Automatic annotation (TrEMBL):
Region Disordered, annotated ranges: 237-285
UniProt name for this protein: NlpC/P60 domain-containing protein
Organism: Ilumatobacter coccineus
Signal peptide: 1-29
Domain NlpC/P60: 288-403
Similarity comment: Belongs to the peptidase C40 family.
Gly residues bias (residue ranges): 268-279
One Gene Ontology biological process: proteolysis
Single Gene Ontology MF annotation: cysteine-type peptidase activity
Organism phylogeny: Bacteria, Bacillati, Actinomycetota, Acidimicrobiia, Acidimicrobiales
Matching InterPro entries: NLP_P60_dom, Papain-like_cys_pep_sf, Peptidase_C40
Length: 403
């Protein structure tokens, strides 16, 4: 998830943008240009690190909120168990008292005193012993049964108290993480505003240049793997042909394998309406019907606002968009991005295909859905909307494949 302003989108090519960003006159010496370029690179480095720090803190925050929800469910269940045990104990005490009255009325024996004494008059242990003696006399239960019930109640109360303490601690953690996230976000915002004032398009262009360079490297890796696979297949076909001696099978069509584009046999998805926000769905050749459905659902959310700790249908955080989109395709994912990354089988970046989830940073703190061609759809940060952007492969730490 992201809690900060997004990095710049594609504006112009890096060289042109850099030239625009620098003063038009007087002419700038080569050394000054190099210094400015290094300063832009330093600023982008710092922005990326601040962004990563903010995302990690925000994901910690999101996890704590999720944990709090589960703890509150656990507390409610523990309270119900305690209430049930107390009701059961009250019922047993009532039954024993009634039996005792019937059994000992007129006997002259003061066996009922401890049954009706307050805690100040007689301790719980004394009353328990007297209940047990009465029960044994009339054959309705055993002392072990009564002891077990009281012990169970005490255990349930202890468990409830522990859960309540965990709730208190988690609420404190949520408040701490929120403050840390907002502080880091403010630091990022201040640097971003200052950088945009001084260098404007140059910063955005440098960020885009890095993303494109990483994607080109990814493409080259995929092409090398495809070429190696094709060569291996050709060699295997050649050996098979020479050994058979007769049939002249040429090996059929070659398979590129492991490319980041979609495989054949999948479904094409361009989503439905964009939901506003200035972007339209892109055409995607999905590798499967499930992936196609998830991509379509995700693209139908384009333009919908980001909102922390939500999973649709009108607002989303980053993991909420993945949870919602794949859920509509019939695949239930964990709710937060770190749990999603831990639960899914991983593939290499060169094997990424549309529908895969692309995770960022270590520990994981942001996620988007890969669309192919170096692009992903994601819910970026507070104040922004669901959108499509280039994948910054340098920041990718895992790729998970649902379905």
């Amino acid at each position: 998830m992201k809690f900060f302003r997004g990095r710049g989108s594609v504006i112009v090519a890096a060289v042109v943008a850099f030239a625009v960003a620098l003063p038009a006159a007087p002419p700038v010496a080569a050394g000054s240009v190099d210094d400015a370029r290094r300063e832009v690179e330093r600023i982008v480095d710092e922005l990326e690190q601040l962004a990563a720090d903010a995302e990690i803190l925000a994901e910690d925050w999101s996890e704590a909120v999720h944990d709090l929800g589960q703890l509150e469910i656990d507390v409610a269940a523990a309270e119900q168990r305690v209430a049930a045990k107390e009701a059961e104990l009250d019922r047993l005490r009532g039954d024993l008292s009634e039996v005792a009255v019937r059994s000992f009325t007129g006997s002259g024996t003061d066996v009922l005193g401890p049954l009706f004494s307050t805690a100040d008059q007689a301790g719980e242990g004394l009353r328990r012993d007297q209940y047990s003696r009465v029960a044994l006399d009339v054959g309705t239960t055993t002392s072990d049964d009564l002891d077990e019930l009281i012990s169970d109640l005490e255990d349930e109360k202890a468990a409830l108290a522990k859960k309540q303490e965990e709730v208190k601690a988690t609420k404190a953690l949520i408040e701490q993480r929120q403050q840390q996230t907002e502080a880091k976000t403010a630091e990022y915002e201040a640097l971003k505003v200052d950088a945009e004032k001084r260098y404007a398009d140059a910063v955005a262009a440098e960020e885009q240049r890095r993303a494109e360079a990483a994607y080109r490297a990814l493409q080259a890796q995929a092409e090398q793997q495809a070429a190696a696979a094709a060569a291996a297949q050709a060699q295997a076909n050649s050996g098979s042909s020479s050994s058979s001696g007769g049939s002249s099978s040429s090996g059929g069509s070659s398979s590129s394998g492991g490319s980041s584009s979609a495989s054949s046999g999948g479904s094409s998805s361009s989503g439905g309406s964009s939901g506003g926000g200035g972007q339209s769905p892109v055409s995607v050749q999905a590798p499967s019907s499930l992936a196609g459905k998830a991509i379509q659902v995700a693209q139908n959310q384009l333009g919908k606002p980001y909102r922390f700790a939500t999973a649709g249908p009108n607002t989303f955080d980053c993991s909420g968009l993945m949870y919602y989109s794949w859920g509509k395709a019939g695949v239930r994912l964990p709710r937060v991005s770190r749990a999603q990354a831990a639960a899914l089988p991983h593939v290499s970046s060169s094997q990424a295909q549309p529908g895969d989830l692309v995770f960022f940073h270590s520990p994981v703190s942001h996620v988007g859905m890969y669309l192919g061609g170096g692009q992903m759809i994601h819910a970026p940060y507070t104040g922004a909307v669901v959108s499509i952007k280039s994948v910054n492969w340098n920041r990718v730490t895992a790729i998970g494949r649902p379905g």
